[in-house]
Every structure is written in C-alpha cells, then in structure tokens.
Amino acid sequence: MDPYGTGPGYLRRPTGPGHLQPHVSGHERVGNAQRTTVLDLLSRAVAEGYLDLDEYELRVVRVTEGKTVAQLYAVVSDLPPPFRWDPVQPMPKSKQERDRESAGSWAIASLALGAASIPTSMCLGAGGIAGIAAVILARKGLRDEASRSKAVTGMVLGIVGIAFSFAFLLMMLLSP
User: Is 124 left (phi over 0), alpha (psi -120 to 50) or beta?
Assistant: First the structure.
C-alpha cells in the first residue's frame, strides 16, 4: 500500500506539516534514468541489510519491467525513507548537460589564464606558462557552442601571452 496515495494512480509527497505537493501521476511512464535511480536505491538497501539477495533479485526484475511511476514506487515503498524513491525529485543531468557545463567552466578558466598571461609575460616567462594552460583549457571549452567565444578569446590571449613571454625572454638573452 502506498503511504502517500490519495487515490488510484496518484502519489502525494509531504513537504511540511499539513502541506502536500501537487499530484504526480502514477500512470506517467518512466525511462532508464528513473529505473537506474530505483536500482541504486535497492543496491544501497541490500548493502545495508534491509533486503536479502533473493528479495533484491525479485525487485530488480520488477524495476526493469516497470513502465510507470506507480510500478517503480511500489518496489521501494516498504523500505525506510532513505531508500524510497521520490518521483518528484528532478532527473539527474544527462552526460551532454554535464559536458556543456564543464565546457563553460573550462572556457572561463581559459579566459582568465589568457588575460593573466599578458601582464605576467614580463615575469621571466611566467606568462608563457599561463598562456599554455589557457590554450589547453580553451580546447576543452570549445566543445560547447555557448562557451565557444570565451574559449576562443582565452586561446587568443594565451597565444599572445606566450608570444610576449617568448619575446621578453629573447630580449633578456640578447641584450648586452
């Protein structure tokens, strides 16, 4: 029995004393990400001794065959709260979303290092090191269209910082 049910096919989750979130349809279809989340909860439950291996295997089959929110929720509804699945929680980010976010971070780091490489190029070539790092990080930042301009700017500034560092070192070596 669903402890949060208010009718067939619907789940309600408490958000505070006497407050309920809007209904989540128990008939809503689930995908691989939701199944993976429930399988992870079952794995933790068996690891902590709340399920034996036979019961775990039966529940895994039910999860892999489950097609709706209600079917997945029923698999973990009798477990303690840390092992219950909350269908209202946001889905984990996809690999593409994570890559896009990291590309933006690499692009910003490249831009900062590229900008720092120019004034530090007169510090016995230290700008060259920052410039090289900026170029390397910019390559990772080029993976996302939204962060491409920052990555290109960081790369250009890094190359300029490398050139200035090289020129400064040459002047130091060739001066009498």
Answer: left
d(CA 168, CA 161): 10
Residue from 54, 89, 59, 58 nearest 72 by CA: 59
Distance CA 91, CA 33 (A): 7
Grouping H, G, I as helix, E, B as strand and the rest as coil, residue 133 is helix
pLDDT digits (tens, 9 = 90+) for 19-57: 333 345 667 888 888 888 899 999 999 999 999 999 999
- Global pTM reads 0.49
Which tokens hold the place of 155? Answer: 């790369």
Chain-centre distance of CA 86, in angstroms? 19
